[in-house]
Amino acid sequence: MQAAVPTSNPRTPSGARRRVGWTVAAVAALLLAALLSLAVGSRPVAPSQVLHALLHDGDDPASTIVRSMRLPRTVVGLMVGAALAMAGTVMQGITRNPIAEPGILGVGQGAALGVVLAITVAGTHGPGGYVWFAFAGAALASVAVYAIASRGRGGASPIKLALAGAALNALITSVVNGVLTTHAATLDEFRFWQIGSIAGPGAGTAWKIWPFLLAGTVLVLSVARGLDALALGEDVARGLGQNVGLVRIVGGVGATVLTGVGVAAAGPIVFLGLAVPHLARALVGTDHRWVLPMAALLGPVMLLGADVLGRVLYEGSEVPSGVMTALIGLPFLVTLVRRKAVAA
Amino acid sequence: MTVETAAGSRLGARDLTLSYEERTVVEGLDLDVPDGEVTVIVGPNACGKSTLLRALGRLLRPARGAVLLDGEELARIPTRRVAQSLGLLPQTPVAPEAITVADLVARGRQPHQRWWRQWSEEDERAVAEAMARTDVAALADRPVDELSGGQRQRVWIAMALAQDTDLLLLDEPTTYLDISHQVEVLDLCRRLNQERGRTVVAVLHDLNQAARYADHLVAMKAGRIVARGRPADVVTAELVREVFGLESVVVADPVTGGPLVVPGRPWGAA
């Protein structure tokens, strides 16, 4: 009766091997996506030339294109993809809601308001200039949502957070629209930001956001086990010795910072933060110490893949990556949902 | 205020008052949970029995008085240390989608793990043993949401067992189960207590099940304890009338010899 059951324990060699296998595959996919992102475009560069351009100082046209244009774009794609995917994973974990996404705490619209004010009031132009405004807007909006949700009985419960987020989103959207209808020039510039793209930001933006990416990543990884416990319900999580309030706050701050990173750098890239966590869980299970790194790998794969596809779809012009993520992400999610429906 | 539980009792309550917002649910309650025995709390709906269990498990902060664990006020002990001596299973817990049995049971080890010490031999042993004991080892790789109600409840109990605590609190562990699964789960509790000397506190709806499985029965009404003791001493027609407002006859259980409550004549019967 008490004999150990080595074939069916939770750290089975086969289970661990599967997780490691998928993680290795995801790393390979990421390298491939990065290589494609450096090589593909209106002026294709051969993979060998890409490596040459990265490793040596050359001033031939291929090297210049790779280093000065495609490398910053790829790096921003890596950072934004990882940030949004991890933010989505944590938002779904904190709210125990599978359709939660990074924008749920009003972060996306807050950033939008920041950008609109940057253009109209401060007269800032170009993605590099928006970053701080977008970040400030995102931070203010999420603090406001949290303050509203924590009033009254029961504190900031997931449902109250979602409701407060939806309400504030609606409010800010109407303010943004109000400003835009009276400032026609702002509208044009804003529209391009709103679609979401990693083409514009450039190396300067990457330098501005990396400390936030690092801080957000450390915060969300620190609550990985807390999220595992929280998935079993608040009472069980407390019974397992977790400080539920602390997990929510640390995770929420981490996810907000990560969302801010993504939105500030590349605009509201939709869908990625919703879909990637589901893909990651389908591959490595429900343990957040595996799901978070997996999401951080798959997010950039999806974003860079979308970006590359957007470059080659129409000759002579580009479809912004924000448009493409939904187009290529949707089939994945639909397949997942259908597979689950069949299994249930 | 006395700050000690009676001898032979690690867990107890002193002058415990519990309330939700302004509404007081439990008032001035004293309780000693006898070590190594099965204590069952019974009472009518809304008598405060689940609320009391939540307070014993530190899910609810007392408005007045205290819950004591090893002579210390529960509210002052760090959460993780509480979780190392006291396991609890809330009413109808919900598993995340697609989690496997083995993964769910393994989460019971959280209170014993640290960032720098993740998965030990001890964890391995506790999880394997918990699954063997609850008879779910064969289901280890199955998703929890594919299991039957009885299997699922056994998996949750396995998780609580993997936590490896001397004290186990169960809130209506038989809710939504059919009669054979009810008996299965309660037999398991009994076995855990007898074979491993675990102290079990359970809230049950069914007075007859309580009488059948309890060493120590606590009957509650309107936030107070009305009677406590061995089921054979406590369960009488008067108690059933007082606590549940029901006319009944108490006879000897033909199987166990303990008290069996048979409600009075049904409406319409001659």
Automatic annotation (TrEMBL), chain A:
Pfam families: FecCD
Membrane topology of the entry: Multi-pass membrane protein
Principal location: membrane
GO biological process: siderophore-iron import into cell
CDD domains the UniProt entry points to: TM_ABC_iron-siderophores_like
A GO MF term: transmembrane transporter activity
Alphabetical UniProt keywords: Cell membrane, Membrane, Transmembrane, Transmembrane helix, Transport
Chain ranges passing through the membrane: 71-91, 103-123, 129-149, 161-180, 245-270, 290-309, 321-338
UniProt GO cellular component terms: plasma membrane
UniProt keyword Membrane present: yes
Subcellular location, record wording: Cell membrane
Family per similarity comment: Belongs to the binding-protein-dependent transport system permease family. FecCD subfamily.
Protein name, per record: Iron ABC transporter permease
Source organism per UniProt: Streptomyces triculaminicus
UniProtKB/TrEMBL annotation, chain B:
A single GO cellular-component term on record: plasma membrane
Keywords, ordered alphabetically: ATP-binding, Cell membrane, Ion transport, Iron, Iron transport, Membrane, Nucleotide-binding, Transport
Family annotation (SUPFAM superfamilies): P-loop containing nucleoside triphosphate hydrolases (SSF52540)
GO MF, any single term: ATP hydrolysis activity
Keyword Flavoprotein: no
ABC transporter domain residues: 11-247
A Pfam family of this chain: ABC_tran
Membrane topology listed for this record: Peripheral membrane protein
CDD domains membership: ABC_Iron-Siderophores_B12_Hemin
Cell location: Cell membrane
One GO process term, biological-process aspect: iron ion transport
Main subcellular location of this protein, as a coarse class: membrane
PROSITE patterns referenced in this protein's UniProt entry, alphabetically: ABC_TRANSPORTER_1, ABC_TRANSPORTER_2
Alphabetized PANTHER family for the sequence: IRON(3+)-HYDROXAMATE IMPORT ATP-BINDING PROTEIN FHUC
Protein name as it appears in the record: ABC transporter ATP-binding protein
Lineage: Bacteria, Bacillati, Actinomycetota, Actinomycetes, Kitasatosporales
